[in-house]
Amino acid sequence: MGNLFNLEGGLMTGLSKVFDIFYLSILWLITSIPIVTIGASTTALYYGVVKVIRHERGYLTKEYFRSFKANFITGTILWLIILLFGSLLYLNMRLAVKMGGTQGYILICIYRAMFFILLCVSVYIFPNLSRFTMRKRQLIHTSFFMAMKHLPTTIVLVVIVVVSYYVIRIIPITVSFLPALSCLLFSFLMERVLKKYMPKKEDGNDESADEWYLE
Fold first, then answer.
1. pLDDT tens digits for range 50-71
2. Domain hosting residue 164, numbered range
């Protein structure tokens, strides 16, 4: 019975991770409130989930804000680009619906396909930003390449994001835990992809480098 509540025991470890999921979701919500910061907060969410919750490295608050600050400018610019293109596609789809007829139907199909591609690329951008050091254009190109090359995985990732979004819209209280929980589920698929593009450890490398993501 004593082992059940031991700090290193399975029950306490599980409860600790549940608390971390709630705590990280609240952090994400607070830092996303300005809307324009969603890119930086989502990058930090993924970083915190993988490094602290999955790999048990570091402290959640410290690691979250480390990533948030380091990727604030790039994450914000990328998010605004995504938001701009998404808004333009939405407005164009509305106009195509009003247009009607064959031409309107064709345009709707084109805009929906473009919106799907935008979603596919978007689900890779912030995990890539949390892991790699690249220029914004290179991040977009790399994310597009990964999305297309790993299309079956990409579709599942998009479904996780879209379902989580609608669940939060329908049941707002789920925002207190669903962002981190869905990100945790998301990460099991995403990490399989990202590890294919990580440089492998070689003999003679700096042993002090904290390459937790290769474990």
1. 999 998 898 999 999 999 999 9
2. 12-84+120-198
| Residue 37 covered by a domain | yes
Residue 104 lies in a domain: no
Phi/psi of residue 202, each to 5°? -125, 155
Inside any domain, residue 49? yes
Kindly indicate the confidence band of residue 207, based on its pLDDT and cuts at 50, 70 and 90: very low
Contacts with 47 (C-beta within 8 Å, 6 or more apart), sequence order: 63, 64, 66, 67, 130
How many folded domains does the chain comprise? 1
Q: How far apart are CA 162 and CA 144, in angstroms?
A: 19
Query: Rounded to two decimals, what is the model's pTM?
Result: 0.88
Evaluate whether 121 touches 147 at the Cβ level (below 8 Å): yes
User: Could you give the C-alpha distances from 41 to 28, 98, 106, 150, in angstroms and in order?
Assistant: 6, 36, 37, 25
Contacting residues for 52 by C-beta, under 8 A, at least 6 apart: 20, 58, 59, 60, 63, 64
Place of tokens 């399989």: 192
Count of other CB atoms within 10 angstroms of residue 160: 17
Is position 204 within any domain?
no
User: pLDDT for 88-134, tens place per residue?
Assistant: 999 999 999 888 888 889 999 999 999 999 999 999 999 999 999 89
213 and 49 Cβ atoms separated by less than 8 Å: no
3-state secondary structure of 34: coil
Which pair of structure tokens corresponds to residue 16?
Answer: 């600790």
Are 78 and 62 contacting, i.e. CB atoms less than 8 angstroms apart?
no
Q: In the predicted model, is pLDDT for residue 4 greater than 70?
A: no
